[in-house]
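Box 3.1 A note on notation
Throughout this textbook, protein chains are presented in two layers. The first layer is the amino acid sequence; the second is a token string describing backbone geometry. Keep the layers aligned when reading.
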Amino acid sequence: MQIERSPVIILVRPQMGENIGAAARAMLNFGLTEMRLVDPRDGWPNPKAVAMASGAAGRVLDHARVYPTLADAMEGIEYAYATTARGRELTKPVLTPEAAMRDARAREGRSAIIFGPERTGLENDDIARASAIVTVPVNPDFPSLNLAQAVLLMGYEYGRDILPPEPAPHLRRGIAETPADRIEIERLGDHYDDQLTQAGFFFPETKAASMRLNLRNMWSRLALTQGDVRILHGILRQLTRR
């Protein structure tokens, strides 16, 4: 899945192939597929990036484009966000990831998110080419994020109102995770009612009807899956095995 008009991810002078690959995986998690590389230290293509990217290699790395400078990599970009904790001396909007990606979703033109080298981050010359600065509100005693973490965070914020809200969409659930229907729960209640009757649970007789009603009501209140129902049947069969 690719999100329509999704931002371009620009990695400026990335140093390690493994980090490029991890960034590609983080991108694809949230439907981002266009990566641009500015002067990667170890050249391109990089087999270490491919190994780390796993399934994202074909969708992201195989189509990554390499540029000599950030200015060249801004081809076709109308608005760019520089991720950095520095550069506040430059007159630019300073946004949180949430605010920046909300702004990006509202724009019709192409946007880009720019990330700097792993050790030093973006330089002021890089930040000067961006439209706005994105700074993550992190623990001031330990503000360091690695490259893939930063890409993952920005990808999540961009996709959070676009991608499906459920971690496991219903159509992808296994049969054991599918909610049990009323008939399955009714049969479960019958099974327990029969066995508990044989065990003399519903006693005294004057309270048996209300006990059965409360038990049936309990089964109906529980959000049981088909797997849950099978387990509860199995437990009862094992307990009553003679």
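The beta strands are 8-12, 35-38, 65-67, 79-83, 94-95, 111-115, 132-134. The chain has a mean pLDDT of 89.
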